[in-house]
Every structure is written in structure tokens, then in C-alpha cells.
Amino acid sequence: MKRRRFVFVLPLAAAVALVLALGVSTGSARTHSKSAPYKVAFIYVGPHDDHGWSQAHDKGRLYVQKQLGSKVKTTFKELVPEGPQTCQVIESLVRDGNKLIFATSFGFQNCMVSEAKKHSDVKFEQATGTATSKNLAEYFGAGEDSIYLSGMAAGAASKKGVLGYVAPFAIPEVIRHANAFALGAQVTHPGAKVHLIWTNSWLDPGKEKRAAQSLVAAGADVLGQNVDSPATGQFAESKGVPWVGYDSDAKSFAPKQWLTAAVYTWGPYYLRRTKAAMNGSWKSGFYYGNMKDGLTGLASYGPKVSAKTKRMIAAKRSALLKGSFYEFAGPLYDQKGKLRVKKGQRLTVKDLYAMNWLVKGVIGSAKG
């Protein structure tokens, strides 16, 4: 049985319009296919506008978007819990077509490892962790160098030599940062003590404020932090206590009491890695940026940092850049007076990633 043919006769003008419409539609589809943006995703433990760690990473994401324009489509997931839920978030990002995923908190690592095994066609990058595989890279930076310098500002601002430090988790990353802060403070205020309070949370403004209150009540006349929100600084401002932040320049939250902060500039790294993923040159590895390559640095100074202190910090920064000085060079002693780093010895990055002891002058437990 033959199929019937139905012939539609259109007026010439209508036929031309139809052809043009089809042509434009087909052309647009082909153009879209050729220029489909490369999808890149970021996972944050806090809100993207936390004025701290997550916001610093989101500035990096925005830098990539601005530099590459329509060639990329970046997205982010914020307030992602560390644990099994991370795996669900990654799965959803893979389903959405993201081919490069950056996870920006240590607690995301387990899921990044398992998801990288499941999705060999996707590239994964984990901040602050240790695990690598063919399609999983690790990256971080020597924040301890900048934190040491910020500690110098804190020590100089202290009259009593008693400082407080609001810290999140007792993991090597935070322990080495607390140690660097204390060592820096002891340069400008010999014999300074740094009291730690652990919040067991990266971002909890309520806990951070209460920790700051406790530290000041215990005699601290300068506050520092390794947590993500500016709550410590807001309390410091209300009590007239100098404050050193972390992650981002948060001077606006404590304009009178702000000293400075160690900061990270993630944009150039994210751009390099995204370009590499797009052009096929991406390879796994471990990156540990520093002040020399611009990943780490110091935020602007506040009004309480004297010209003398600025000169001292500048000199120490220059020595760090030259390699003639390193804060984790021996001799270094722990809280109990035990020699941990011998004279002439320098801790390696591997040593820093395993650090589980606090230096002399830090008051608190290395176990949280």
C-alpha cells in the first residue's frame, strides 16, 4: 500500500519567510553547538558572600567567568555539608554537564575521591587535601607565610602580650596556621602568648562571637582568627580590641580595630586550570602557591598598624620571598618545651600537612 503524498502550496512570500526562518533556526543551532560553553563548578562549605574563605574562592570563579566570557559557564553550590551529601552535590553537577569541578574544603575530599573514580571524563580539583589520582588534583597555598606576617601586626598591637585566636578544627592546616600566627606575634612582642578556642565549625558566627567574648574575658587584648565569618571582628570593634582577620579583606566590619589579614587570590590559578582543561593540557598534580606567585598575601592595613611595624613586616616579607627566612625553621619547641625542629632544619610541605603539635607560647589543645 502506497503512502499518500500531501502537497501544500504556499504563497511565494510565505514560502520565502518559512525558508528564512528554518535557515536562521538551523544556523543558530549549529552556532550554539560550536560555541557551547565549557562548564565549570565550584563547591563551597559556606555562603558565597561570607566575607571570608568561600567568598575568596567565588571571586576566583568570577575572575574566570570575566576572563573567558561566553567560552565558559561557571556555577557554584554553597553551604554544602562535609560528608555524604557532598557526593550527591557532585553527582548533580556531573549530570548538569560540568567537566571541571573545584571543591574548596578539606571535608569534601572523600567524596571527591570516590566521584573521580566514577567519572573518568570529569576533572576534579580539591583544595587543602592530600589525595590525587589521574583526574583528581590537589591545590592550596602557603597561607602560613602571610599569617605569620599578620601575627607580627597582632603582636605589635598587644600591650599585655596576651592574644586570642578563634580556630575551627584541630587539623594540620589550622594547627600550622595557629603556630604561624603565634610565631609572628612573638617577633614583635617577645614572650607573647596565644590562647586558642576551637569552634569545631568553619563558619558559625554565633560560636565565633562567643569564642571572642571568652578570649577577651580571659585577658586577650588582640584577636585573630582562622574561621570564615567576620563575627570575631565585629565583636572586637564593639570592645575596642584590635583584630586580625583571615581569607579576605574585612576592614569594613571593624574600621577602627582592623589590623590586616592573610588573603588568597585564587583567580589566576582557576583561570590556568580551566584553560588547561579546555585545551586538553590539564594534568593532575599538587600545587602549593605562595607570595612569590601571588596566591597568598596581606590585606590592607588598618589605622593601628604603625609605620615601624609596617617596615618590620615588609623586611620579613622580603626575606620570605628571597628564601633567606622561613618561619618553620629550627630550633622550634612545642608547648611542653620539647624540641620539634632542630637548628638548621626546615619543615617541608609534607611535614606541614602532618603537623599535630602547637608551638611554645600557644595555650590550648592540639586535639581540639
Question: What's the rounded overall pLDDT mean?
Answer: 92
H and E order: HEHEHEHEEHEHEHEHEEHEEHEEHE
How many H/I helical runs?
Answer: 11
Largest sheet, described in full?
6 strands, parallel
Helix content percent band: 40-55%
Which secondary-structure class do the elements indicate?
alpha/beta
Shape: globular
Give the C-alpha Rg: 26 Å
How many β-strand runs? 15
- Uncertain stretches: 1-33
Report the end-to-end length measured between terminal Cα atoms: 83 Å
The amount of beta strand, in percent, is 15-25%
Verbal overview:
With 368 residues, this protein is of the alpha/beta class. 40% of the residues lie in helices and 19% in strands. The chain is built from 11 helices and 15 strands. The strands form 4 sheets. Strands 2-1-3-4-5-11 form a 6-stranded parallel β-sheet, sandwiched between helices. α2 crosses α9 (267-279) and α5 (143-157) runs antiparallel to α10. It is globular. The chain starts with 11 loop residues before the first helix and ends in a 5-residue tail after the last strand. The model is unreliable at 1-33 (pLDDT under 50).
